[in-house]
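quick one before i forget lol
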Amino acid sequence: MIFPQDYKYVGITDTPPQKGGVIYFSTQYLIVETTEEEHTDYQIYLVKNNGKGLLRTITDITLLADTHQIAVLNETVDSCNFGALVKKARKLCSSQINTVIITARDRHTTFIHKPDISELFEIEIIDIVPPNPPWLIYTTRRLYAAGVWSRLPICFSEKKIDLTQFQDENTMFPCTSSGLKGTYLDAAKTTPDGTTLVGCDISYQIFNIEFTNKLKKHINTCPLKKKLYMPTKPFITRCCQSENIGLTTVNNMPGVVVHWGASEYDVIEAVRQLYKRCKGDL
């Protein structure tokens, strides 16, 4: 896959390049755009140059994509949102089409040659339902769409741990705001013998203080406890205990934890940390 890291490396011309020709020093790729009778064709070349100064001599030319291999994305996009654009470009490719030209919102042009989703670094978001979508998944979706991770070649998958499967009149959940059918630790004054508690370690501790000897079963919902789900890829999740915040490993998978009340900025930095760790930069 070729996706120029910056559109300053991409030039546009109406004439195919030739060895010995002159080219701007930072240009590594040339999009040749020719229009005849209201129809536009494109070719994309890899070009190498030699010399000093702003204008240099073309020393080598390689045709990356010919007219019949190129499609154009018919919308303006954030050109630095690497992962999202690879997915968009891949949808336009076929057995014949292997390259997609992209126009940014500032009207600059770039391209993706042989877009390959498998080359993206996938991060799994693990969160609890309800609400649906849960906060961490909802927040990461918005941040990803906004392009806050810009040139990081990442994408996300989602794992929702659905607590509605445990709804029962004899089940207690931590919080009234969940809306789950059962009783709530933050509101209950009493509870019958044989109560099932669905919650994290903190809920378990509070329950045993408030309702001694009433617990029949504790279903631990904390993603770090590996009771309801085992991560199978690098992941991000959240926890209410501050001491668990930061980089971690679960099931031999690298992950990062943000606090239950984390801000969007915290999520942005956590994803960057996880990516750097997995790529050997930490």
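fyi The chain has four helices and 17 strands.
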